[in-house]
Design brief:
It contains 3 helices and no strands. With about 110 residues, it is an all-alpha fold. It has one domain. The radius of gyration is 26 Å and the shape is rod-shaped.
């Protein structure tokens, strides 16, 4: 069965075209972001798996990828903040130990 766009009523053509444009836009955006993060395992999945999810997932695939990428970025930034605070604690701890050894409290 072959359906041509002119066979569809004009009331349905506009939403269908909008849906196709949204789907292609989400897919293109997701593929660009995947390319930029191709060295990362986003939430434990390799980029090749995400590529298949984005292409085969229609609209939900790119949306799932974008949500997972946002969570991945959030986790990375939280880890960086934790490492900075841990480094500052370690630095202050070693400074305290050094001062205590130089000037013992009698």
């Amino acid at each position: 069965m072959h359906v041509h766009i002119s066979d569809i009523s004009p009331e349905l053509q506009i939403p269908l075209i909008a849906l196709v444009v949204i789907q292609l836009g989400l897919m293109i955006l997701s593929l660009i972001l995947l390319w930029r993060h191709r060295d990362d395992h986003i939430l434990g999945l390799q980029p090749g798996v995400w590529f298949i999810i984005i292409l085969c997932g229609q609209i939900p695939g790119p949306i799932i990828f974008l949500v997972c990428l946002k969570r991945h970025r959030h986790n990375e930034s939280a880890n960086q903040v934790f490492e900075q605070h841990a480094g500052q604690y370690q630095h202050s701890r070693s400074t305290h130990t050094t001062i205590s050894s130089l000037y013992p409290q009698d």
